[in-house]
Amino acid sequence: MNKIFNHSCENMREIPDKSVSLMVTSPPYNIDIHYGHKWEKGKQIESKGVKYADNFEEDEYRNMLAKVIGETKRVLKDDGQIWFNIKNRYNKGIIIPPFWILDFFQDMFLKNIVIWNFDWGGSTNKRFCSRYEYVFFFTKHRDNYTFNLDDVKIPALNYRPDRYKSQMKNPTDVWRISMVSGNSPERTEHPAQYPEELIERIIKVGTNPGDLVLDPFMGSGTTAVVAKKLGRQYVGYELEQEYIKIAEKRLTDDEPKIF
Length: 259
Ligand SMILES: C[S@@+](CC[C@H](N)C(=O)[O-])C[C@H]1O[C@@H](n2cnc3c(N)ncnc32)[C@H](O)[C@@H]1O
What we know:
CATH superfamily: Vaccinia Virus protein VP39
Number of helices: 4
Radius of gyration: 19 Å
CATH class: Alpha Beta
Shape: globular
Structural class: alpha/beta
Oligomer: single chain
CATH architecture: 3-Layer(aba) Sandwich
Order of helices and strands: EEEEHEEEEEEEEHEHEH
Strand content: 25-35%
Largest sheet: 8 strands, mixed
CATH topology: Rossmann fold
Bound molecules: S-adenosylmethionine
Distance between the termini: 23 Å
Number of strands: 14
């Protein structure tokens, strides 16, 4: 398919039923991120007009996600899977964990709650700084789904040839992967870009070449870029045309940045 559509993913009319092998996404978090504006030292230095407002009423926000997840289930193959990246929110002095999303996946099978751990972010002085986000992994069928573990194994630090057959091991459910830094070759103007390395592991383990990968909230196109590099097809949605342009530029860029 290899297309990013410029309308809301609440309706994925272009995608046939049961055609997608894997959905991976980071939805808007409803934390008032100013999408589309450029910031420097806390000041808005450029605005590209009205952008997606990341500040829904909570009910409205959850209803939107429920619709998108409903549509995803329609387009997902019977052996398909969903990887859903979301983080705790911090509001009025307390943490609100995102476990309410589990209500939307009651007819699927929760296989992992991956902790994506990284090095930097906001600093705090009356609680520990937060340095992780979740990636929830659900399958449509309990047992029948793709899991190419050998393709994502990592070297074991405590390898002992007398005890283990191979130095390569299961990467576990805690993944230490850097956020996209300001000076990374991957960096775009999108304020909430996730790293290619995170998506690479997910697409490699959960799909085979030629499979269709969906990202309903495509942003700067990271999912599409990685799918393309790995010989998978992609499809997705993005409300902001500016971000689709960024994604298209990344997709036509011939120079491999990371792998
Ligand atoms: C967290 S960002 C995704 C970033 C992406 N993972 C990347 O690496 O660039 C969420 C994106 O969803 C878009 N968005 C918000 N609501 C949407 C909707 N209903 N349909 C499609 N896109 C939407 C926003 O404009 C934003 O770019």
